[in-house]
């Protein structure tokens, strides 16, 4: 009896304690082991390798099908395009095509291709390879084909291609299409290895991409990392590519800093990332005094941070009401508070000031003028009959619904708009949705008075999907035959006529007050002081990784 | 007697397993229903704004089998699961199992390490904060428990990163490559899940000390180690259960922690997939989470029975 | 059952009074309009005018804390209420329903419990238009399975007391037994776990708001304040400490309540 009790004592104390300890120990061991096993080749910052932080996790990274600008950050250097745009002059310069000719009727573009170029997998580059990429993007008969950004870019007048000989390739159009060269200079039109395209399906090619560019894609783990290694055989780069040297970057690992913007600055300071974009302005400002980090400010051409007015909604369909709201918005104050003005300009029209074809006349149109707002409200018949500080329209209190995503500084900007408009008697409900998908669902449903969305690009034809009355992404629901005419016409005319047309277009959009522009995009990039040579393409988002170097000792 | 007990344990395990299969099937069905009830889908969200026509969207859905009748979808869903095929991710356009394979390692490591931290911290804090421990110690421990349960995890995360990565430069701030990358996130996650364990342990220990048999034991003048033995036996039962329960919270915690520490893993994948309406992915991850929980829970039940022979008489209830 | 001691039990009443009082009174204490940005006064330290300073947009932190507290706490109470009501119903059924149904229910409950509650909440939330109230609904529903489990356990424990059999044998009606014996025995555990659900909802509300799932951010709430303050945590830690500290106090109060009433919660 005595013995049994003693045995039980030991069990009672030691069994649980031992169990807990072994459990913990085993757990720790398993944790360490599994980390060690799952180890791939590791990249750490330092030497000729670097870690590049991406700030958005694209839904896919197939340049021919996916739409995100983010994918171009790594892929711009994996592919070459037929032609390039010079980062500084914005001129078109030769890429995989040594030269090109445009027929007098502007319906045939002939590209004379460079010889002795090979893809990363050893496949020889020729006109046939270009044809396969064109098929993959434009030919609906291509297995499991789907429409992508690249298809949008080549425009509505594309009429197939013709392989003249091994190194001569023609693009045919039904109607002249001026933005064609710009389209073909973007990474969405990177020429891919026909061998690789044949080896992988439409869905799986994105993890095994093969181009001719200065970097090879060596590893992709969706949503976690993209790894590039230098292509040592690369000699056919465009004129603005610096020659490779022993200070070039050998290996670049991209990681996603998309969930928590605050982690970007910390990782920079801790040396766990070498380059990361879209720093919050407060963090960028704080880093200006850090000796080990440089701040690069890159203006992004395209649409500014803006809100579309939904002109299919009552009251918002009144031009005077929209104009009144523009006058009621103190954009300078918003930009000052949220972005710091010296790091970010105020936006005035549908195109950022950094875009070609920007019409500076729009800047004067809507100064912050509450007097004018009240006049316009009076004309429409908005009154505060019950004295509650909120205006009524047909005895209904005015309440606008603004739909925004939860990223960037949209919540802050919208909150300031809300408070500015409350002062003139307009109530605002902010519908902040989580994630891109949800915002697109709101956009499709049409249940909003204002909606924030923007697209980027050098050519002003990015305005077409946003304002053509037939476009599914015309979130303003504004219908104007004349504007449609100008937008369509501007696709096919020469440069001078385009300037006139786009001036008119911007004027009309602002005259109608279809959007509330707030701030031109400026990407604030933090990068390690041990590096030099960071520059971005003319389109703004994409770095020329080829020109990055480790500073000489 | 011992042989009989062993037999019961075997019987119980078999019955438990059977029940587990039933529960799993119910869970699988629940997920299927939930996913079909939810609005929207990734295909329309991706293709429609891209200017695709409705027929193109429908064709894509057809290709992915989203337009079959529900009964047929359910049948193929079940058979596919039995074959280990969890479908295609709508977002990544890759086999769900493949994507999970790529990411399960770091999450498993994080979960395990955090589990260890949770059990150890919870155990120490729990025992040290019972009523009979010295007042300053008790207050300190109770404070820590309260802290672990009430401070949002992202605050602790940024504070430890600030201290250990920036100020002291001891540990990396982001990434999931080496065991060193594991330390900070595991500590933070483990600490924040340990509070519940500690509270239950402390409460049930205090409880146990007030039981009549403890009074007897104390009256008999047993040494403290014997007293703790008596008390722990009883007190450990609810703790086991809470530990199992916390595995669910550990998984939930990875959603935030993986984002903050830029770790590869299933937590951030789960969050993104829910937002993207990538339902095959959500479906698979939910099932995985359910499986882990059921396993943990089953082990906890078995453990309870091993420690406490009284429970095996409630056999019928268990089955 | 021993009656509660006669002296006032602070641990029982103080949490309720403070939390409920906060919901009722706090907005009246606000010194500024919590929504109005005071241009030029962005991120100021505490002063006579702004007791806890101002935030990123120049709004008074103290007033936001007060007004936001009402929204945060009332939605948390709603979430708790949903979890308790649903949990009591399901848990009660689990005890009193006839055997086959009971058995099926217990399987269903186990299946529900198998999903992490944050996943359940996330999925419900994204299906609805996000707002603090739908967040409360999602958290409440996500809390039901666990509360049902606790209810069933508590009722089972109350029923298995030896004197229940005795009372029944001397002819007490089921209702009498329920009122005099079952409810008093089960109540502490149920109330205690109720307050656990309360603190759980509060913390998860803050977590999901941090992830940007709080919906309309026009009105202040603690989760949004935390999420926005988090961006400048190194420049102005008070923007996080103020809502974070208050939130922590509320969780502590709820835990105190749980400790006092239940002695051993979550069991």
Could you characterize what this model shows?
The complex is a heterotrimer of chains A (553), B (319) and C (267). With 553 residues, chain A is an alpha+beta fold. Chain A contains 16 helices and 22 strands. Helix content of chain A is 31%, strand content 20%. In chain A, a hairpin with a 3-residue loop joins strand 8 (215-221) and strand 9 (225-230). The N and C termini of chain A lie far apart (81 Å). By secondary structure, chain B is an all-alpha fold. Chain B has a single domain (10-318), classed as Orthogonal Bundle (MetI-like fold), CATH 1.10.3720.10. In chain B, 78% of the residues lie in helices and 0% in strands. The longest helix of chain B has 37 residues, at 224-260. Chain B is flat, with a radius of gyration of 24 Å. The two termini of chain B are 21 Å apart. Chain C is mainly alpha-helical. Chain C has a single domain (54-263), classed as MetI-like (MetI-like fold, Orthogonal Bundle), CATH 1.10.3720. In chain C, helix 1 (10-29) crosses helix 2 (61-96), helix 5 packs antiparallel against helix 7 (174-210) and helix 7 runs parallel beside helix 8 (222-230). The longest helix of chain C is centred in the C-terminal third of the chain and has 37 residues, at 174-210. The radius of gyration of chain C is 22 Å and the shape is elongated. The two termini of chain C are 19 Å apart. The interface between A and B is large, with 69 and 74 residues.
